[in-house]
């Protein structure tokens, strides 16, 4: 292949397309327009002589060549980033601490394996985790946080945001709840008691704003900062709990809860790994965020 035909920016577009399997999601992740991503996809299809993504029903699926490239890309992009970025990370000699904001779901369900590996692989690395709150964007700017894994509507211009995925919302209730059979309509949803989660990111505003558009609201009977506590409260009451679907599907069975579709349409949840631009080229930071990003997208609890 003639290397002069290759625009390195196409590789970044390819990475997002293969991870997101969506032109619109890739455009959002890269802060580009959908037409620009569509043009890049056409160039990539010509470059690789393969469709890469094809529509199957209502979803885009990777071709075998697309699956192969998805596995190969990290091994291509990481050396390229290291090539253009000064500084090398030495796991044996590194000594330092990282302050990271995450959700309790990520801490309990996704990070245990990675933390164990890092404690063995980088003996001098210390990790301090905090529960993410939306106001912590300021902590990233001012250096009190090194990175954050969270849900967020929009990434500020001065913050680097690497997409982890997106999700839709669902409603949980105990399996013998009066609303567990039959359709869950708007009247039943708004008449019920609700439990909300106050910590680990804003899991309430999207629901409440969507209801407000209809002149409706929820009756929040209990608010708690931790997802495990919210699930336990839901299992022992007639209250409803509204959560991102992948979280709900992964942990609801542990509490004997069932999932029901919401009676209203909400904007998808967007998940990001965030850091401030001043740390973009720090070798140790780059090492940790690559491993954290990989753990987030590869974990079975992220799907």
Automatic annotation (TrEMBL):
- The record places domain HTH lysR-type at 6-63
Xref: Gene3D superfamilies: Periplasmic binding protein-like II (3.40.190.10), Winged helix-like DNA-binding domain superfamily/Winged helix DNA-binding domain (1.10.10.10)
| Pfam families from the UniProt entry | HTH_1 (PF00126), LysR_substrate (PF03466)
Q: Which PROSITE patterns does this chain map to?
A: HTH_LYSR
| Keywords from the named record | DNA-binding, Transcription, Transcription regulation
Q: Which SUPFAM superfamilies match?
A: Periplasmic binding protein-like II (SSF53850), Winged helix' DNA-binding domain (SSF46785)
List the molecular function annotations (GO) for this entry. Answer: DNA binding; DNA-binding transcription factor activity
Q: Of which family is this protein a member?
A: Belongs to the LysR transcriptional regulatory family.
Q: What protein is this chain from?
A: DNA-binding transcriptional LysR family regulator
């Amino acid at each position: 292949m003639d290397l002069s035909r290759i625009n390195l920016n196409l590789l970044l577009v390819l990475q997002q397309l293969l991870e997101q399997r969506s032109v619109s999601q890739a455009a959002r992740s890269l802060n580009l327009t959908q037409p620009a991503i569509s043009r890049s996809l056409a160039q990539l299809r010509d470059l690789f002589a393969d469709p890469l993504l094809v529509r199957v029903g209502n979803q885009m699926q990777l071709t075998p060549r697309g699956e192969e490239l998805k596995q190969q890309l990290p091994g291509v992009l990481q050396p390229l980033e290291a090539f253009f970025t000064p500084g090398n990370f030495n796991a044996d000699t590194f000594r330092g601490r990282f302050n990271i904001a995450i959700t309790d779901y990520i801490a309990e369900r996704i990070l245990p394996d990675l933390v164990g590996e890092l404690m063995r692989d980088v003996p001098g690395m210390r990790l301090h985790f905090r529960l993410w709150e939306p106001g912590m964007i300021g902590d990233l700017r001012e250096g009190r946080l090194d990175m954050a894994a969270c849900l967020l509507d929009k990434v500020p211009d001065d913050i680097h945001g690497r997409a982890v995925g997106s999700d839709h919302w669902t409603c949980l209730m105990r399996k013998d709840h009066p609303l567990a059979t039959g359709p869950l309509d708007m009247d039943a949803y708004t008449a019920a008691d609700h439990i909300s989660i106050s910590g680990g990111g804003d899991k309430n505003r999207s629901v409440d704003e969507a209801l407000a558009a209809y002149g409706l609201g929820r009756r929040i009977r209990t608010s708690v900062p931790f997802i495990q506590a919210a699930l336990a409260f839901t299992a022992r009451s007639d209250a409803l709990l509204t959560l991102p679907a992948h979280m709900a599907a992964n942990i609801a069975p542990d509490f004997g809860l069932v999932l029901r579709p919401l009676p209203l349409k909400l904007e998808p949840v967007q998940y990001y790994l965030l850091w401030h631009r001043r740390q973009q080229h720090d070798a140790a930071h780059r090492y940790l965020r690559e491993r954290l990003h990989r753990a987030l997208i590869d974990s079975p609890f992220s799907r």
